[in-house]
Write a structure and sequence with these properties.
alpha+beta; four-stranded antiparallel sheet; 5 helices
């Protein structure tokens, strides 16, 4: 089990922390930069690529907050998101402790998920809403998706974890062993 802090255990921990802190820093710094340096018409993108199909437009995303907490007073919403964030971080560290030595890919993927979650939680707490900075789709009438670096990192981390699980499960059933080709 991965509870040991031998050389490989420390390596897993380094990947977890590196992934999480990298996502958190990139996410928060990109939002701070765009919000501080680009005051603009919310309907006009700061940058646009592929004929407007990929655009940088900082917008507040209140959807999750309102769906989960409705008309709760703001202190209740803050308490709810703090508890939710602590629960997610706790589950992440429980999963981390279950990693075998040398499972740096899974540790990094967990770091991406945790860093993204903390980044979105920081938005809720300090900005009052999650700030989405990118949109895919031209926005006619609505874009296909709005997201930020935290959201993208959560998605990438979860995909890597699922692929690793499927590869390890397939290898286990085939009697090959439990290591994944991604761990080499």
């Amino acid at each position: 089990m991965g509870g040991s802090l031998g050389t490989e255990g420390r390596s897993n921990f380094r990947w977890l922390i590196a992934g999480g802190l990298s996502v958190l820093l990139i996410d928060q710094l990109s939002k701070a930069f765009l919000l501080a340096h680009f005051t603009h018409d919310p309907a006009a993108p700061i940058l646009s690529f592929f004929g407007g199909q990929l655009s940088f437009i900082p917008t507040q995303s209140l959807t999750l907050a309102f769906e989960l907490t409705g008309e709760w007073p703001r202190p209740g919403q803050i308490a709810f998101f703090c508890l939710l964030g602590l629960l997610i971080v706790g589950v992440g560290f429980v999963l981390y402790r279950g990693l075998a030595r040398g499972e740096w890919v899974n540790a990094l993927a967990l770091g991406l998920v945790l860093g993204g979650g903390v980044g979105n939680l920081a938005d809720e707490l300090f900005r009052g809403a999650v700030i989405e900075i990118m949109q895919v789709g031209g926005g006619d009438p609505e874009p296909w998706s709005r997201f930020n670096f935290a959201d993208g990192s959560i998605l990438i981390g979860l995909v890597v974890l699922v692929v690793e699980l499927l590869v390890a499960e397939g290898a286990s059933r085939a009697g090959i062993g439990s290591s994944s080709p991604l761990d080499d």
